[in-house]
């Protein structure tokens, strides 16, 4: 008898769960979304399938993302349903856009239409006040303040000095009898540069502690969102707490000694703001979040450039020639290279642009619709996510001839500002660090190709959950003679 009750209980629990899932599934299914717009036109969802209840198509998305051709999930559906289609990934019904115009519209919309959407582990670690998650006037204010600071010639000059110093220090230790792991070297250099920009911390004991805690912190960004002692997320949150403490101490010291009117780092910029919206906690939290590109995106830009150049001797030859000529000229004039020198090299910039196109360091961005939105005749229902998938646009043969070939020359007469090329996003949240990323990559490439020749070991690009080299890009270097 007891067993019978148990069976009835288990059965009814499963049945209730199934009903809830199925009701949710129906709520988001196409039949329920033939709604009328204010103009009384019938709007329907883009074609596509939602896959399994709850799981959706996440498993197929992830298995493609780990493969050599991560865009295959999207491209297969794009061929079947068109450039904009519906799916269900990462626990949410999602409209995937590979249509550059639709994506542009989404990115340019304000927070009344779309807000950022990230996996739960990431939002837990970032915290509510992270610039990546906040909306409206506060996001615009912080974005504007840091964007203006990053554009200032004064900061670019400082970054150039620091970058040259850290690059030289790193390269001095390179020997020809041991492999150099480009991904590790660039991570270390770019992290130091960005930490200096953010909180004016120089390499030393505190930097080493920060680096260690930061590793612990980012390990949890794509983890299972369970925050209990011992879990990955818990350890990452603990690491973040320690880093926030360090930044809060820096803020306190600055306040005690008087904040400089001429900002020397991002903390100064935010402390100088008079709006009183920017609390010390908000500033400290954001400094940690903004270290992510220093550890991740920028080093990957440099690493991938070396990867593509290793496979493209003609491009490498032209890049080396351009940089050697600049170096010789500057040596003759007895002048050091300044930031505008680095950015003035057209072929070097084309190499960086082409690396951004092929590398797709950020494959796309996720937003959540705050209301029903109509774009180009498509309906994006309230509560659904939109995934603007840049990778397929960047690798589309209709936009770029032979898209899988590394061809920096394609950018010679091409307009970079087209909506077919969005490695730094666009609209309200266009990456404020884009100039810095290009500058750092230009400086690294200059010093690398003018001082070394190299042979790269076999390695492959892994694209999920973040872009990286499987073996950290080992190369064997040979120092060039000074002639
Ligand atoms: C190769 C290097 C980089 C790439 C590919 C990249 C890409 C992106 C993209 C695609 C976005 C838009 C995210 C969205 O729309 O939700 C973004 C935002 C952002 N990036 Fe970058 N980024 C890079 C380097 C940097 C650097 C060096 C910094 C300096 C701290 C930086 C700081 C930020 C910030 C603060 C945002 C958020 C802006 C906002 O939401 O208002 N990024 N980045």
TrEMBL record:
Binding site for heme: 431
Cellular localization per UniProt: Endoplasmic reticulum membrane
Topology within the bilayer: Single-pass membrane protein
Stretches that traverse the bilayer: 6-26
Main enzyme class: oxidoreductase
Catalytic activity reported: (22S,24R)-22-hydroxy-5alpha-ergostan-3-one + reduced [NADPH--hemoprotein reductase] + O2 = 3-dehydro-6-deoxoteasterone + oxidized [NADPH--hemoprotein reductase] + H2O + H(+); 3-epi-6-deoxocathasterone + reduced [NADPH--hemoprotein reductase] + O2 = 6-deoxotyphasterol + oxidized [NADPH--hemoprotein reductase] + H2O + H(+)
Keyword Lipid metabolism: yes
This protein's pathway: Plant hormone biosynthesis; brassinosteroid biosynthesis; Hormone biosynthesis; Steroid biosynthesis
Keywords for this protein: Brassinosteroid biosynthesis, Heme, Iron, Lipid biosynthesis, Lipid metabolism, Membrane, Metal-binding, Monooxygenase, Oxidoreductase, Steroid biosynthesis, Transmembrane, Transmembrane helix
MF terms in GO: 22alpha-hydroxysteroid 23-monooxygenase activity; heme binding; iron ion binding; oxidoreductase activity, acting on paired donors, with incorporation or reduction of molecular oxygen, NAD(P)H as one donor, and incorporation of one atom of oxygen
A Pfam family matched in the record: p450
Cofactor: heme
Any one of the GO CC terms: endoplasmic reticulum membrane
Entries under PROSITE patterns matching the protein: CYTOCHROME_P450 (PS00086)
Top-rank taxon, per record: Eukaryota
Enzyme Commission number, as recorded: 1.14.14.147
The protein, known as: 22alpha-hydroxysteroid 23-monooxygenase
Organism: Rubus argutus
């Amino acid at each position: 008898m007891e067993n019978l009750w148990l069976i009835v209980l288990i059965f009814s629990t499963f049945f209730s769960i199934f009903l809830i899932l199925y009701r949710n599934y129906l709520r988001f299914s196409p039949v329920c979304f033939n709604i009328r717009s204010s103009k009384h036109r019938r709007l329907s969802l883009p074609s596509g399938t939602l896959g399994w209840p709850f799981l959706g198509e996440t498993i197929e998305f992830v298995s493609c993302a780990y493969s050599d051709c991560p865009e295959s999930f999207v491209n297969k559906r794009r061929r079947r349903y068109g450039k904009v289609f519906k799916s269900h990934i990462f626990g949410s019904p999602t409209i995937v856009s590979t249509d550059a115009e639709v994506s542009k519209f989404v990115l340019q919309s304000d927070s009344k239409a779309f807000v950022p959407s990230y996996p739960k582990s990431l939002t837990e670690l970032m915290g509510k006040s992270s610039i990546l998650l906040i909306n409206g006037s506060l996001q615009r204010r912080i974005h504007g303040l840091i964007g203006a600071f990053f554009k200032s010639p004064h900061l670019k000059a400082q970054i150039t000095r620091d970058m040259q110093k850290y690059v030289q220090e790193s390269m001095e230790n390179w020997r020809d009898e041991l492999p150099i792991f480009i991904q590790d070297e660039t991570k270390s250099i770019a992290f130091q540069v960005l930490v200096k920009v953010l909180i004016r911390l120089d390499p030393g004991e505190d930097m080493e502690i920060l680096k260690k805690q930061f590793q612990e912190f980012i390990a949890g960004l794509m983890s299972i969102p369970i925050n209990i002692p011992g879990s990955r997320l818990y350890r990452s949150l603990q690491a973040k707490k320690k880093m926030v403490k360090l930044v809060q101490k820096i803020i306190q010291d600055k306040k005690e000694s008087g904040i400089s009117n001429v900002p020397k780092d991002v903390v100064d910029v935010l402390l100088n703001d008079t709006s009183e919206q920017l609390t010390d906690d908000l500033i400290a939290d954001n400094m940690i979040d903004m270290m992510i590109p220093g550890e991740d995106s920028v080093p990957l830009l440099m690493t991938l450039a070396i990867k593509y150049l290793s496979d493209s001797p003609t491009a490498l030859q032209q890049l080396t020639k351009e940089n050697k000529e600049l170096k010789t000229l500057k040596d003759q004039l007895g002048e050091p290279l300044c930031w505008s020198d680095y950015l003035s090299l057209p072929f070097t910039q084309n190499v960086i642009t082409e690396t951004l196109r092929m590398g797709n360091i950020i494959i796309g961005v996720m937003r959540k619709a705050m209301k029903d939105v109509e774009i180009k005749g498509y309906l994006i229902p309230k509560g659904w996510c939109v995934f603007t998938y840049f990778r397929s646009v960047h690798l589309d043969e209709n936009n770029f001839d032979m898209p899988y070939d590394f061809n920096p020359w394609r950018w010679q007469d091409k307009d970079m500002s087209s909506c077919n090329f969005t490695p730094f996003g666009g609209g309200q949240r266009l990456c404020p660090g884009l100039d810095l990323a290009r500058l750092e990559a230009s400086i690294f490439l200059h010093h690398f190709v003018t001082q070394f020749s190299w042979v790269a070991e076999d390695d492959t690009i892994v694209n999920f959950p973040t872009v990286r080299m499987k073996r950290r890009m080992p190369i064997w270097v040979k120092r060039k003679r000074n002639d």
